[in-house]
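Notes taken during the Thursday session

The instructor put the following on the board and asked us to keep it in front of us for the whole hour. The protein is Phosphatase. We were told not to look anything up and to reason only from what is written here. First, the residues (230 in total):
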Amino acid sequence: MRHLLLAALAAASLAFSPVQAGEAKPFATAKTIDLLTLLKPPPANDSAQTRTELGEVLTIQVTRTPDMEAAAQADAVENVWRFANVMGPNFKAESLPVFSAFFDRVVETEGAVVDPAKDSWKRPRPHQYSPLVKPVVKISNSGAYPSGHTTVGTLMGIVLSNMVPEKRAEIMARAWAYGENRIIGGIHFRADVEAGRIAGSVIAARIMEQPEFQSEFAAAKAELRKVMGL
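Then, after some discussion, the predicted structure tokens were revealed:
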């Protein structure tokens, strides 16, 4: 039985090899999850809410510490390995090929669903709205609403916490910080991040209903829990 299990895991590792990451197929697209009908539009550029949100960004800009800036810069990367600080030393891509390839698909799903909504709403980012804003993360000029980083952070957090419910609180706190770091970094407004959290939750709920997702989730979960000794 043990030999059969090892053989199955080896086969799965080949099927979900990390070298296929660039070809990862999303579990959903904007055609199946239309954020334009699920989210309210972003605040108008000349609204009191946008002015308040700009004030928050500018206040953070003069109060953030070097450590806060470093955390925001580190979280500019969109992958599940940003959760390593709560998952432990065994949480490494080289040890988790099936898990890694599965989350490549999860990450691709965010872009496939969120990017069309960003392109439609075209909300300016803080630095586009005001020259006073000086982001400390990589500049992006795509639409700000909803925040893609926050969406994928929330989505990854929900999926990962379903694999390791023992660490749910820590995982979701990390996902929350992932979104906050987009405001700290000066690249998103508060409404962008709040909409990203809703979007990530909606996407997670929708894709978890799919048999294809459920099958790959089960294989990735089994590998993760085995490597982590759970």
